[in-house]
Design brief:
single chain; 2% helix
Length: 335
C-alpha cells in the first residue's frame, strides 16, 4: 500500500446529480462533501450543508478556536479518546492530545486534513465517486498502515449513501464518520426551529471533558429524548445509542418552513449529535455566509467515543487483514 495521497497538492472535485436535480460536490481535501443542493417544489434550489468557497478556507478553518470539520471524513478515530491513550495487544499507545489532554477526531492532523485520491467516478443510474487514503503505520501514533476507501453514491430516490471500507497491515483501532453540518433551510440560515428525531432510549454518560464514563443514561424523562420529534436543542454534543441500526431510520431532521425532511439510516451503534458551525467571524462561509453556533447540526454515525478504553462498549479493533465496513444513508423527501 503506497502512501501517495499526501503528494497531491492541487484540489480536485467531483460533482454528482440525479434526475430530480439533487446535486452534490466532493473535494479530495478531507474527502469532504462541499455542497448538497436540493430543488424545492417552488423551483428554488438550496444548499443544505455548510462549507467554504475555497480549499484554502477549509485548511484555515482548522486553526479556528474550534475546528468545524465541515463535510469531511473523520478518522482514524472519530470522537474523543481519554488522555489520548489506549491499550492494544498488551501495548500502550499515546496519541496526540489536541483536545485539552484528550485526542479528538484523529489527532493533530487526522483524515479530515489529508489529500485523498479520487480513484473512481461513475455517472450511471446511481452515480458515485470513490476516494482513497492510505494512512502510514504510526501516523498520529496509530499502529498499522490503514488503507481507506470512501464511496459517495447519489441514488435516483434522493438518497446519499456513504460507504467506508478499510483494511490494516496490523491490529489497530478505527472509527470513521462523516462531519457535515446540515441545515434544511439552507446553509446561511439557522436550525433552531427545525425538528430533530433520534430513535434512541439511551445516551452515553460523559464527564466534564465530554469523555464517556462507561455508564449510560436512560432517556425516559430526559430533555434529550427525541423519540418524538421536537425542536433542535441550542446546545448538544452527545452520543445516542442506536439499538436498531441497519435498515431502519435512526434519526431525522425536518424543516416545517419548506416541508423538507432528511432521514438517517446507519449500521453503526451510535449517532453523535452536535449543533454548531461557528466560524467566530474569522472565515466567511459559502457565498459570504456568516456561520454561527446554530448554523447546522451534525449526525455523526459511528462507534462510541473512547470505545477502546471500555470493555462494555462495541469493539473498535480490527485485526490485521480484517475488513472494516460502515454504511450510512441520508435520505431526502418532502412531507
Amino acid at each position: 500500500m503506497n502512501n501517495i495521497s499526501n503528494t497531491i497538492k492541487k484540489p480536485t472535485y467531483s460533482t454528482l446529480s440525479n434526475k430530480y436535480g439533487l446535486e452534490i460536490s466532493i473535494s479530495n481535501f478531507g474527502a469532504s462533501l462541499t455542497s448538497l443542493k436540493i430543488p424545492l417544489p417552488s423551483g428554488e434550489k438550496i444548499d443544505v450543508v455548510l462549507g467554504f468557497d475555497t480549499v484554502n478556507n477549509y485548511k484555515k478553518s482548522f486553526d479556528l478556536p474550534s475546528a468545524p470539520y465541515f463535510g469531511s471524513i473523520v478518522g482514524r478515530y472519530a470522537g474523543r479518546i481519554a488522555n489520548g491513550n489506549f491499550e492494544l495487544d498488551g501495548k500502550q499507545h499515546q496519541l496526540f492530545q489536541n483536545n485539552n489532554r484528550n485526542s479528538l477526531h484523529g489527532g493533530k492532523e487526522g483524515f479530515s486534513q489529508k489529500n485523498w485520491i479520487i480513484i473512481d467516478s461513475k455517472s450511471t443510474k446511481n452515480s458515485s465517486v470513490t476516494l482513497e487514503y492510505t494512512s502510514p503505520s504510526y501516523e498520529e501514533n496509530y499502529p498499522g498502515e490503514l488503507k481507506v476507501l470512501v464511496t459517495y453514491t447519489l441514488s435516483e430516490s434522493n438518497e446519499l449513501a456513504i460507504e467506508y471500507n478499510a483494511i490494516s497491515s496490523e491490529d489497530t483501532i478505527i472509527n470513521l464518520t462523516h462531519h457535515s453540518y446540515f441545515n434544511l433551510d439552507g446553509h446561511a440560515s439557522t436550525i433552531e426551529n427545525q425538528k430533530l428525531m433520534v430513535a434512541s432510549n439511551t445516551l452515553l454518560e460523559t464527564n466534564k471533558d465530554n469523555i464517556p464514563t462507561g455508564s449510560f443514561i436512560d432517556l425516559s424523562d430526559h430533555e434529550f429524548n427525541f423519540n418524538v420529534p421536537k425542536k433542535c436543542p441550542i446546545v448538544i454534543d452527545n452520543t445516542f445509542v442506536i439499538a436498531d441500526s441497519g435498515d431502519v431510520v435512526s434519526a431525522s431532521l425536518f424543516n416545517p418552513k419548506n416541508n423538507l425532511k432528511m432521514e438517517v439510516i446507519t449500521n453503526q451503534p451510535g449517532i453523535h449529535i452536535y449543533v454548531g458551525g461557528n466560524c467566530f467571524g474569522k472565515i466567511k462561509g459559502k457565498e459570504g455566509a456568516h456561520y454561527h453556533p446554530l448554523s447546522g447540526i451534525c449526525f455523526e454515525t459511528q462507534n462510541y467515543p473512547d470505545a477502546p478504553n471500555h470493555d462494555n462498549f462495541p469493539n473498535a479493533v480490527i485485526k490485521k487483514g480484517e475488513r472494516y465496513y460502515h454504511k450510512t444513508i441520508y435520505r431526502f423527501k418532502f412531507e
